[in-house]
Every structure is written in C-alpha cells, then in structure tokens.
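Handout for the seminar on molecular recognition.
Each group receives one record of this type.
Step one: identify the two inputs.
Step two: read the structure output and locate the region that could contact magnesium ion.
Step three: write two sentences on what you found, then compare them with the reference statements printed after the record.
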Amino acid sequence: MPLTYVVHYSEVALKGKNRPEFVRALRRNIARSLSGLAPVVELREGRFLVTAEGGAEAVGGRLSRTFGVAWFSEVVPVGLDFGEIRAAVLDAARRSQGKSFKVEPRRSDKGYPLTSRELALRLGAAVQEETGMKVDLTHPDVVLRVDVTRFNALVYSNKTAGPGGLPVGTAGRVMHLFSGGIDSPVAAWLLMKRGCVPVYLHFYLAPTARYALESKVMKEVKVLSSYGGKSTLVLVPFAEYQLATAGGSADLEPSLFRRFMRMTAEALAPAFGAIAISTGDSLSQAASQTLWNVGSFDHGSSLPILRPLLAYDKEEIIGMARRVSTYDLSLEEYKDCCAIITRHPRTRVKSDLVDEYVTKLGLHDLVWKAIDGATLASYNPVGDVLRSSPLADSMPRPQAADPRQIYEQGAGTRSLYDRQRDSPPA
Ligand code: ATP
Ligand code: MG
C-alpha cells in the first residue's frame, strides 16, 4: 500500500523569481530521492503531496535527506465532507494512544463552510466524547492536524523536520577538494544544503586509484550521494607532483601543494561546468589554514574559492559530521598524501613566493600530467552503481596552458558532468 505525505518547503527563504525554479527543482529532487519507491509528487497549493511505496521508515529517511524540505508528515487524505474528516481524526486519535490532545485545523481554502475555530470545536468535542481523551492546549500528548485544501482534507499528527536549505542543483557546480578527513565531507554537505552540486576532487598517494575507490573516500562520497543524488569523483595521482617537487623547501610544501590542488581544480572546472572551488578549511585550524596562507592559496585564482567551514570550531564540525553520518568513516585508516607533507609549515607564506615556485617547478604543465593520469568515477545511489574509467578517455586536453584561458574556452560548452549524468545507469 503506498503511503501519502505532505511535504512543506520554507517559503520565507524564497524570493521573487527564484521561487518557481526552486519549486521545480525540489519536486524533481523529491522524486529522485524516492526513486525505486514508485513516487508520485504533486504540487498542491504551496506544498507537495507525495505518494510512495516502501514503508514509512524508507520514505521518511529519504525525505529527511532532501534539501529544501522544511518538514513533512504522513497524512490520511479524505474528502471535504465533515463526516469523513471527523472519522479520520477519530481514527488518528485512537491510534495515538495519548491521554490528552488538541486539534489544529488549517484552511488553505478559505471558502470552506466551517471556520478553523468551528472545526476545532466540533472535532475536539467528538474526540473527547468518543475516546475519553482530555483537551490540553499547552502540552498535549498528541496534536491532531487537519489541513483543508480545495481538493481534499489532510489529517495527520506528527511533523518531522526536514534538513531545510535549498534544493541541490539550484546554485551551480563547485570543484570540491575532498580529502576524506572529517572536514571536507561536512563542507560538501553544507554546500549541497545551499543548492550547490559538488564535483569531488581527491589527490591520492597510493600507486593506483583502486585503493582510493575502495577506501573511506568513496564510502563518504556514497553517504553524501544519499543527500545530493548522483556524484562525480575525480581521483588525481599525487606521484607526478611528488617527483617534480622532491628536495624543495620543506616548510613551503603545504602551501605549494595546496596551490597545485587549486590549479588542478581550476583546470578541471570547465569540463565539469563548475563555477567555483571549495575546500574544508577552517580558519587557523592548521598552519596551512592561517589567514595569510588562505590568501596565498587564493592568489590569482580565476574562480571564487568557497570555504563553508571557515568560522566553525572543530567540535562543531564533528557534531555536523555525526549528523551527516560521515564521522565514523572519516576516522578509518587511509594513507593520505598530506601525511607525508611536513608537519611544521610556515604560517605566513607570501603569495609571490608561491607564484615563483609555480613557475620554477613548471606546475602548469604538471597539472596536465596529473590530469592525464586521473580517474573519473561516478556513483549513482539509485541501484548502487559505481563506474570508473580513465579521465583522459572522456576529457580532451585543452590547447591553452593558462587556467584562465582554459576556463574561458570551456565556458558555455556542454560539460562532462552533464554527459555523465544523462547516461543511463549501467
Ligand atoms: P579534512 O578533514 O577535510 O581533511 P583537515 O583539517 O585535515 O581537513 P587539511 O589536511 O589541511 O585539513 O586539508 C584542508 C583542506 O584541503 C581539506 O578540507 C580539503 O578541502 C583539502 N585537501 C586536503 N587534502 C586533500 C586531498 N588529498 N585531496 C583533495 N583535497 C584535499
Ligand atoms: Mg586532511
């Protein structure tokens, strides 16, 4: 038996012309998150009416991971006849097994012959008389809710909070530097919460990409896919960079490697239609994250750099990581390339110095060598399908070496991301 839900979005957050796009995207995302459960999603007077199979736990679990949902509830839809509403409310009261109650009617159809107050009084009297439950307007065991719409009445009691935010896909794509640590998955989650689609970019130390694909890195991407839908992960080998920079100044290493990651993200952005770069940095959490080093990371970037965790404390980030369900995974053993980079970096690295080394070590060319060896993985939570192939198979090498030119070349073209997304699941 399919269940019916009412799904509300927060209208306060919606301004002007964004609203229709938001509503369309949310409708699409709700349907996508419920795929496999035969969902039907209809827009009804500022809210969605959703039917789906699979049981309350499965449907509720997925709705509570769909950004843009303010709250939802399983409902019993009945006709507008008072007798039908009364019977459904009595049924809900009996099933609740509470000792006290209050009735909360809402009319989105103001033409209904009974006012909200009349509905509350008549339904309240019926519940008292038929079940013996007591009215308690301040701390009731159960709230019996009735929404009267133009088409039908929805009877329900418990409301479940959704994750809020904006529907994934309404704010653009972002190349997200993803380490598999505690912070970067949370940063990705916060970006999705504001409507962004992260394209995960991970630099791996292991001899092959397979190690990363079988590690916590991929497991975390899978968890994040339960919020954002189909995910793309680009795995870039660290080896080329490591070889070319060996023997350099150790205390500069983190800043230089981080600049290299940014340049790689910039170079890849057009292929994925990404218009920003993001990281899991939190201000001054590590020497590489001082305001000075944030500055030398960003210096000369052709794209904006987003840092959703900049102002959060570690404890706050851990709290969010638990909520997202990536915390335990992020503690799993993994050989990260940052582990072989010095533990005592400089806290005030000048941008010009990094620029100098970028030229001296030929990092622009190195970026493309690393990309030539990269792996493209896509994960579709529908059917749990993971596919991977060499990135070079699907991405032609651009002519220009300067990321700014590459970005301009790529602007407006159909991205690799779209082509991947459109391809039917294996
Ligand atoms: P995290 O928990 O996200 O690993 P962290 O506190 O360990 O963060 P760093 O290791 O300094 O901090 O990394 C800061 C940011 O740099 C990360 O959040 C991520 O965005 C990026 N980063 C670090 N290592 C990698 C990597 N191997 N691949 C891609 N991005 C990385
Ligand atoms: Mg890290």
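Reference statements: The chain has a mean pLDDT of 91. The chain is about 40% helix and 20% strand.
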